[in-house]
């Protein structure tokens, strides 16, 4: 049953948590599915519609099964899954490896196999699996292996999105668990500081991601503009559109899953442009799923850097980022990318924001970057003469 191409590249889709947290229902989830289609984002690769925490009743039924809250989901979960599938999308849900979910609903601890069966019977394609109320005496590794085994044997292809927030050195054992993605960070907030911190926290972990097992830096806040109903997520104000674009570029080149967190039924043109940038999506979805390496600007190494990701067609995806508060220079020496001075080779630069071919460059590419901004290129080695 297991599809060998399940989540080969980072999953893309939408998740209810960042904007709506507890306030979810059938109308919202079906509306999000409609909006992914109508906006064109589905055609660009966003395929999972995921219901996060707060979907169930507080008690299991008499057979020990999870029950969807009939007030929020009056037609049951199967009906929601069927609707999402009828749109050509895939359906995701949420549970937790502990006794309760983070919001206090029943968790899957010691119910892993029966819950996997329930999810399969509803038509679930993706399970986000959280880390709250985990019994202290059991390693997380055991519990993620359990749910992975349960899903791999439930009779349906279901992606396991492990969400242990980077604890217990998850990057070192998650491959072996069979999960397809692993949350490596605490929860994102809708502000620039959070984007910067989460990105920097994973710069030394880029080698631990790859096809079928992706480092999840958390769901996107692009386009939220302070709309979360949750105080923690909304703390410290929102980002500017430029900062959201930077956030998206960093997540894309880092190979993080691209799970939209804003209200997709109400996106501005700027939000849609950022989320729909096909060149950035192509960089994120490159079939080899290599993590980028980082070249720092010599005179401002903490704030200004280039991320370089080898793509399967021989070109390099390059993202310049300026994390500082002032306009700064990034000077990328091609020597550092593996191009010797005497080789008569340069790089042909294509700009992923302006969509312009900038021509051939020899030895280096130098750019001024605005505060909190990025420049993203696809650079192809080319003979100079
Ligand atoms: C944790 C996760 C979040 C979200 C909430 C739900 O905090 O990290 O992404 O799923 O739980 O309660």
From TrEMBL:
Its EC number is 3.2.1.22. It catalyses: Hydrolysis of terminal, non-reducing alpha-D-galactose residues in alpha-D-galactosides, including galactose oligosaccharides, galactomannans and galactolipids. Residues 307-377 form the Alpha galactosidase C-terminal domain. InterPro entries: Aldolase_TIM, GH, Glyco_hydro_27, Glyco_hydro_27/36_CS, Glyco_hydro_b, Melibiase_C. It holds the Pfam family Melibiase_2. GO terms for molecular function: hydrolase activity. SUPFAM superfamilies: (Trans)glycosidases, Glycosyl hydrolase domain. Keywords: Disulfide bond, Glycosidase, Hydrolase, Signal. Belongs to the glycosyl hydrolase 27 family. This is Alpha-galactosidase. It comes from Anaeromassilibacillus senegalensis. The lineage of its organism: Bacteria, Bacillati, Bacillota, Clostridia, Eubacteriales.
